[in-house]
Amino acid sequence: MAACGxxxxxxxxxxxxxxxxxxxxxxxxxxxxxxxSALFFDFAGDATVFGRAAVAxxxxxxxxxxxxxxxxxxxxxxxxxxxxxxxxxxxxxxxxATFLGEVRRRGERAAQAPLDAVVHGRPVxxxxxxxxxxxxxxxxxxxxxxxxxxxxxxxxYEPIAAALDYERRVDGEELAxxxxxxxxxxxxxxxxxxxxxxxxxxxxDDILANDGIRVGGTDFDRDLSIAAVMPHLGYGxxxxxxxxxxxxxxxxxLATWSKINFLYTAKALAELKRLHRDSARPDLIARLIGxxxxxRGHALAMEVERAKIALSxxxxxxxxxxxxxxxxxxELAARDxxxxxxxLAARIGGRIDACLAMAGLPAGRIDAVFLxxxxxxxxxxxxxxxxxxxxxRVVTGDTFGSVGQGLTLExxxxxxxx
Length: 418
Prior knowledge:
418 residues, alpha+beta, Nucleotidyltransferase, domain 5
């Protein structure tokens, strides 16, 4: 049975092939082992493109629809809903299946073998505080995996997978806190690691704590967009009726990757035109309508994401705002990102104490903090995780590949063949 590890992420996806003598992440798009979790449905060509090619097709103005952050619907009511594509209805389950089916096909081509078994990564919590919804989300993902051709489907927590990748570089024995801060969730584990423990078939006793929260990189995009972009489109602007401001809902949808497409309907556009009529700042609402009519919501979201990434390594950046009535730009400083998203970082950091309490350990017992996931590149997120553990060694893993590597190691252990 040929096996693989699959890290289906909110922002990026990786797949690793497991052989008896080695594991490796395979190339999914050109020379890249990462495939952005994006699809573009090309209406003119009646085709679907994936990953970077999907984003490029959208950016080039092709007639079609871009969908990103599709993993975000797991654990929500949207998983049982559908959406419109060029006049036809398609279920969100089918959208995820289309993407994961393509990942499996690309993985098989790269591995030159059929992939029958998969260890699927999953967050510690798909849904915060709702075990039934969490179990349902895993069940849906398992059903989709079987539907695209995997005969044997099992799961591993993403931070545990990252721990398995990190353990390969550990010589002695240590207690490590693993922090995987991805596009949709932040997940933590405290794990006992060591050279002598690697080959053990059962590692349950080595996992001292597992915790997570449904906060990730796309939430940082949303809050930065609300602070820096949406006021230019009328967010918080006054209505003609004294004491009222524009409703938040359309701005939140436009700032949220998984909800942008909901604005591209006749009903939503009609509501925006009513808002324009009743607004005391119709010039700003006209910009909002222009963005929706031109279906430029994802383009704005991409600019926000670029600005966020730029501010992770630079004190200032410029966020272009190309509206119909004028070309503007928002000049942003790193402190603006911290102010807009500081509460999210604090929520992430708050899980460290929860993990320590769950493990029954003081902070001083943690030997190392292993960081993976794109959002660990944000300095204030990194500080929120490491500051509570001042004596721990900070280790940075493969930002986008550690979880996939660990899942593939787990596939090798569980299935043993390729």
